[in-house]
Amino acid sequence: MTDTPKNQTLITGQLLQIRDKLMAKRHLIPASFQAEWDSLAEKTEMFDPANQGQLSHAGNQMVTKRSAFKGTVNDLLQLVEAMRNLNRQIKITAH
Q1: What total of structural domains would you count in the chain?
Q2: What is the DSSP track for 54-86?
Q3: 27-43 burial by CB neighbour count: b if 16+ within 10 A, else e?
Q4: What is the pLDDT of residues 18-60, one digit of tens each?
Q5: Is 74 inside a domain boundary?
Q6: What is the model's pLDDT at position 1?
Q7: Which residues form the domain of 84?
Q8: Mean pLDDT, the chain, integer
């Protein structure tokens, strides 16, 4: 996949969807996977709204928000795959 802003945006969206799923069930992550979760959470904390900074608008000018992520599309794809693998390991059982 080419390293374009559009591709980065699409892959970032996938990453955040999986991350949100894991955040919702983070209390179910077994101790054996906790270190992996902590590492992935740290690598993706730059996408948290609190870490995105503020935008200021001047008149009708468009403002482009720069990503805090400094990696490539391949880096994002690796994070997505790591999140997917962890998500597959977390089993939710109904009682």
Answers
A1: 1
A2: -----TT---PPPPS--S-HHHHHHHHHHHHHH
A3: eebeeeeeeebeebeeb
A4: 999 999 988 888 899 999 999 999 998 887 766 555 555 566 6
A5: yes
A6: 73
A7: 1-16+30-47+69-88
A8: 81
